[in-house]
Design goal:
The longest helix is centred in the C-terminal third of the chain and has 20 residues, at 334-353. The radius of gyration is 22 Å and the shape is globular. It folds into three domains: 2-78, Immunoglobulin-like (Sandwich), CATH 2.60.40.1120; 99-194; 202-365. It has a five-stranded antiparallel sheet with strand order 9-8-11-12-15. By secondary structure, it is of the alpha+beta class. Helices cover 33% and strands 25% of the residues.
Length: 370
Amino acid sequence: MASLTVKLNTPANLRWSGAFPVEVRDSSKLVLAARGVSDGKLDVPAGRYFVTAMLPNGQQASVNDVVVNVGDDRQVQLSVADLDLPSTLPGSSTVEETDSDFVSPLALPSSDQRISILRGNWLANKIETNAPPPTREPTARARIGITYPTEQTWVEIAISKRCSYLAVPVDELRSTTLQWEMNPESGRLDLKYDFNDGEANSFFDFIRNDQTQEARSIGQSIIAQAETFMANKKRSPLCAVLGAYVLLRANELEGMDLWTTNMISWCSWLPDALAVRVEFLAREGRHPEAFSLLLQAPKWGTPWFRSGVAYLEKRAKTYTNVASGKLSNFPMGDADIAKCRRIAEVFGQLASMLDMTQSTTVLRADEPFI
């Protein structure tokens, strides 16, 4: 046996970097010998190989006739120079700059559109009494930049009475650039996110482009590095929660207990941390814990990713039905049952408004909702 490490020379000024799914195949018969991610060590028999790495848009970087001898610990560099790789969004920047420093206004497609930036936890205002409403800032922009730390930020696009609400996910100690364009006649919405981090961008694009198997490989790699990933300089709770969603979709739960516990403890600003922890606990049959945590949803806010809204809606509805049928074997007080019922009602509304063509949470309403 031998080991092989695959590296990609992705330019620093482009959209993608970090881990990419890798396959190693026998050069003559193309039989799969190993599968993993770039920068990770792969164990292979001695032989001659064809090595490929998959990019989020389906393109492949490859090299043929890689010879690996017994006992080798070899590195292979794949070039992406001949591939068409996307650039970062105009206006993408570093976290040291303020919102106004790197917001680039674009011409809006229609004067009928009214755009507002919403700041604050509007979910709490929908569920609980006396919770403050979000603030509204009218704008003529079609691209914004949000830096961490910040209040939860959403974009509202109103055309007549119809409204669309766009989540703006932001990673820890980083910034996010969001650009949008809506056709006022068809309602078609084009969204472009740049998380100002190549690893987060590439992982998000794998998921958005429905490269499920490839995203799962990266998700497994992230979970495997859980302890060091949350402690080192490249700590990225946003990548962590994306990885959790990918593995929940595949029902691959191994290693997620510690991972989701840490996210709940350390990332109270990240609403999706609660969603993945509730879903994990429920799938493990730890329903009293899941129910107790679910009741905190108003404090955490609306998940930034569509899967989180769907998971919380399903669990809130399930626990409400269990309480109504008196089938629960764990204590549920009247006040908790009433709160769960209200959470189920609001998340039922959110789920019915989800734009299923988007990976992030995008709500499409026939009248103002927030």
